[in-house]
Amino acid sequence: MRRWLTEGFVLIIAAVVAFPLFWMVLSAFKPEDEIISADPVPWTTRPTLDSFTRALTVANFGRYFMNSIIVALIVVALSILISFLAATALTRFRFRSRTTLLIMLLVVQMVPVEALTVPLFFLMRSVGDSVPVFGLNHLGSLVLVHLAFSLPFAIWMLRGFVAAVPVELEEAATLDGASRFRFLWQVLFPLVAPGLVATSVLSFIHAWNDFLFAKTFIISAVENQTLPLALQVFVKPDQNDWGAIMAGSTLMTIPVLIFFVLVQRRLVSGLAGAVKG
Amino acid sequence: MSVTAKGQGRTAFAYLAPALLILGGLLAYPIYQLVLISLYDYGQEQVSGGAPLEFLGLGNYRNLLGNQQFWGVLGQTVAFAAVCVVGTLLVGAFLAILATRVRTWVRMTLFLAALGAWSTPAVAGSTIWLFLFDANFGFVNEVLGIQGFSWTFDKWTAFGLVAAQVIWCSFPFVMVTLFAGIKAIPGEVLEAAALDGASAFRTAWSVTLPLLKPIILVVTIQSIIWDFKVFTQIYVMTNGGGIAGRNLVLNVYAYQQAFAASEYGLGAAIGVVMTVLLLGITMFYLRALRRSGEVL
Q1: Smallest Cβ distance to B229: which of A114, A145, A245?
Q2: Cβ-based neighbour number of residue B107 at 10 Å
Q3: In which domain, by residue range, is A15 found?
Q4: Counting C-beta atoms within 10 Å of the first and last residue's C-beta, which end of chain A has fewer, N or C?
């Protein structure tokens, strides 16, 4: 009897926690007159794709969706390459400044990146003078900052995965005549792939969710905005098009949700690994 | 030996070069620049080259510490973060304990719902909550029968709404981590306590809690770090810091000073203050990590 009560209570909590997301998807499919009704109801009898159509055409969400995807995917690809090389160097080689670098990697993760908006804004401004693609108002500037922010954690996390690959394997590969380059990309790289998946998801989500830097860097080039910023632009004090906003929110949440479900086990064990007692 | 060591060092730095280049240029250099800019009077005229740069030394900081609004915002930030942290921990711990007492399918339902809240991007989450609590079309006001009541107009209901949203998307981390911690306690330990005649409460208080202490410490400090620098939720839900800036927290304050008021020097100084505060918390974090057995 008591277990039934507890389980009922837990299910109610789960429903409350899930409710905002349910409301988002529901509102995205509601016809407009039901959304701006004074008596909203938690169901709809006339589901429609109108809101999605409006979001994608009028608000041009498709374009911003692509911008977000481009930034996030480039960040993921580059951070995989760079952090893999760096993690290999930090685990497989012994050199003098190794420990110093490791400590700096840890400390740098603690710096609140939000505080760096001012210097980064001016840095991107001057970078833009010589290389416009990486300057203000261009997606390149977002790629650069998110790459920098995701690298320390990615290197830190990959280090463990590289260290787990036995050194004997490298010796065997060398004896078989594999060059260091071949060993790196054809033996080591596939072996640390699980670690790469976990770090890539975190880099992807970081870049995908970013609001502050998109807002700071993409000032006047409307065509280069990313999803979080575009969503915010359509929230006006009155006359909100809630249907389109909810459709846009749904489009923005789905990729992250898919990623999270795919890697939740690895993510949780990775995070739990960092805090294990 | 020394030849190989040298060769190793050279290869290692070749591998490290791209990472060092990016981190040096886009993290280390901006940190240096942040401190530098905070020492200057750096406004719109200086940026456009219309006026010469004026070195102020600690002038921006003196300005800040003598400004009543800064102290108000600092107090609000600490109070807001405290409410979010306490709320997140209570909700997360409570649900983690409940999760150990239900059947698997019930637990999976709860975790799935939590996963959804966890993965919702901050901007999307903020707009959903705004819509749910909308004065005229919101479902919450309909249920409560208070249509026309604006949650974001009053300072305290606005802060409360944002805090609720922050707790909603950050309790899953605490819940999942604590649940894993509870599950990792060997059954024999609890059985031994039961055999020795300890009550359920006594077992929880004297056995489970001490064993979980390292994990609780780490999730607490992690939550403090996260909630101290909330930006998106405050910015989106209170429309940039509320009416007359009464819902500002440090992060949004720094942004507004720099990019809305063009007081870049002052904005940078606020950034430095925030960094120093967070590094202080981080020192605790590192000590906690070391005590819980994590090694470099």
Answers
A1: A114
A2: 19
A3: 1-48
A4: N
